[in-house]
Write a structure and sequence with these properties.
Elements lengths: L8 E5 L1 H7 L3 H16 L3 E9 L7 E10 L5 E10 L12 E6 L6 E6 L1 H19 L6 E5 L3 H14 L3 E5 L3 H15 L4 E2 L3 H5 L4 E4 L20 E4 L16 E4 L2 H4 L8 H5 L10 E2 H5 L13 E4 L4 H18 L3 E4 L2
């Protein structure tokens, strides 16, 4: 005997819809920070991401992220995002993503979204929110390594919070760093310095973000370049930092220890394997700090590191913020599912 139910509809937002919604800086930060607070309060379920590697000869892999945000209305989601380093050769972004939102009580699909821009925005928001709680309030010099999609939102949202006097950017390919700097100059309305090497980018910076695209681990960011009191955010897929970097830190913070402590990728993977970053040396997860359960920066002299691997919870929170705005503005499509 077949069951009878009301028709099921899903909301669909493609990349053009997401662009038209044009979430502003504060909308992005508010959505992601609300998700972090729920995580910190224990009102979320998050499982470590899994990696799907297509096979030999392909320079990339898929990340699969899953989670549930609690609170008054439960929200579940699964995101699949590719990480293919050589996509630029075909004029494609290295990271293309799709987000499925579901009802956690019934499993009913609720929405499908192009999550490529969501991935970039939520990554930048996590960097910026980390800095809000962990960087010196008067930070005025940013050193940023990397020019991939997430890099733009790192710089844009950090500058929104700190209004830097100096922004330095560097990446491996000259054409990518020049184009990145020009986009930032246009959108931020201020000078951006393109540097020739890592050292001149990092030395003397109040906030250092390492978002490189290395093919294999290589210690290009030297510990000796980090100034006392700086805030450092390394999150490249392949490690670009020295093992000694954690030795100079007063606080080590991550987005989710469950996914940081395992897996085969990540900027501090070697530090976890060597025991330099462990449950004992970890200060807190960022959500605990956002929720007020653990302290953030406590004095100007603290040198602090924040490693984020990317939260499904942030994707889910930002996805729902986009859906809410889309429904209000009548943007997107509603499709019959079943």
């Amino acid at each position: 005997m077949s069951s009878v139910h009301e028709p099921i509809y899903i909301d669909f937002l493609n990349g053009l819809d997401v662009a038209e919604l044009n979430l502003d800086n504060d909308e992005i930060l508010a959505a992601v920070e609300a998700g972090l607070a729920l995580q910190g309060q224990g009102e979320a379920v998050i499982e470590p991401r899994t990696h799907l590697i297509p096979g030999a000869g392909i320079n990339g892999h898929f990340n699969v992220l899953r989670g549930v945000l609690g609170g008054e209305i439960g929200r579940a989601g699964v995101k699949v995002v590719g990480d293919f380093v050589d996509n630029y050769r075909q004029g494609l972004p290295s990271e293309l993503a799709i987000l499925n939102l579901l009802d956690p009580a019934t499993g009913v699909p609720k929405a499908i979204l192009d999550a490529s821009a969501i991935t970039d925005m939520r990554t930048g928001a996590l960097t910026a929110i980390g800095a809000r709680h962990l960087a010196r309030p008067g930070s005025k010099v940013l050193g940023h390594i990397g020019a991939r999609g997430t890099a733009y939102w790192n710089v844009r949202l950090l500058d929104h919070l700190f209004d830097f006097d100096e922004i330095r950017v560097h990446s491996r390919r000259v054409e990518s760093r020049e184009a990145f700097a020009e986009r930032l100059r246009r959108d931020l309305g201020k000078p951006v310095v393109v540097t020739e090497d890592w050292k001149s980018t990092v030395r003397g910076a109040d906030i250092v973000v390492e978002a490189s695209r290395l093919e294999r681990p290589e210690p290009l960011l030297r510990t000796e370049w980090i100034e006392p009191g700086a805030f450092v955010v390394p999150y490249g897929t392949m490690s670009a930092v020295e093992l000694s970097l954690t030795d100079i830190m007063d606080k080590l913070v991550v987005d989710d220890w469950g996914q940081c402590k395992g897996g085969q990728f990540g900027s501090l993977r070697a530090h976890v394997e060597a025991g330099r970053l462990s449950a004992q040396t970890l200060h807190a997860e960022l959500g605990q700090i956002v929720a007020g359960l653990r302290p953030g920066r406590e004095h100007p002299g603290e040198t602090i590191l924040f490693w984020h691997r990317g939260l499904s919870l942030s994707d889910i929170a930002l996805g729902h913020a986009l859906l809410d705005k889309a429904r209000h503005l009548g943007i997107g499509q509603r499709l019959r599912w079943a």
